[in-house]
Amino acid sequence: MAAEVKLMMTWDILPGREEEYFEFHIRKFMPTLERMGLTLHEAWLTQYGDYPRLTVEALIPSLTRAKNILDSDEWDNLGLLLHGMVENFDYKLIPSRTRWQM
Fold first, then answer.
1. CATH code, 90
2. 5 near 93, Cβ under 8 Å?
């Protein structure tokens, strides 16, 4: 059985784009990720400190499936849409554990 993986994504919302970003996040970003096969697990909004403003964690059933998603045109297109509203976007795949991870 393939091991589940987590996709950890971080970014900062561009100043002045907050309303547009949150509208995009709810109406396009989350539904697209779910349609692609990701299960959104947790999200954190940083209020203080020198850390990314948003951290989002999604579960993917296997490393193979994760790589297919990250190599897809749909992932690239979603990134292009996100790019206009955020900066410092980064992501990584990590083995899924039941406890909090970074």
1. 3.30.70.100
2. yes
